[in-house]
Amino acid sequence: MPSQEDLTNPNYLLVTTRKRDGSTVPTPVWVVREGADLVIWTVRDSGKVKRIRNDPRVTVAPCDARGNPTGPASPATARLLDDAESDRGRKRIQRKYGAMGWLVVQGSRLRRGTTGTICVAITPDAPEEHS
What is the pTM of this model? Predict the structure, then answer.
């Protein structure tokens, strides 16, 4: 089981969601930490959002930009954020990723409007205690 330190501040996070048939879909995404949560940003009607609505259980692992894991996977629970929380998450993404983050978020805002994207808070599950 990975420690919380493995997920302290990765540049990319591999989020693996489950389809209704049980198969999994891994997706590399930008991520910022907010307290105990990892916050990602995505298109509101994306497949991963639909899968999270159906089953909030996910796994997360640090990865590179292409989605190749750079650390172990950990079980977690995802929660879709409301508009105000998503706006705060988008601003944090822009700050963390600098000019590229600003360009991507603003470009998305021009294409999709202010509510075309959503942030997702991912809370890593607490490690199980073994006696």
Answer: 0.85
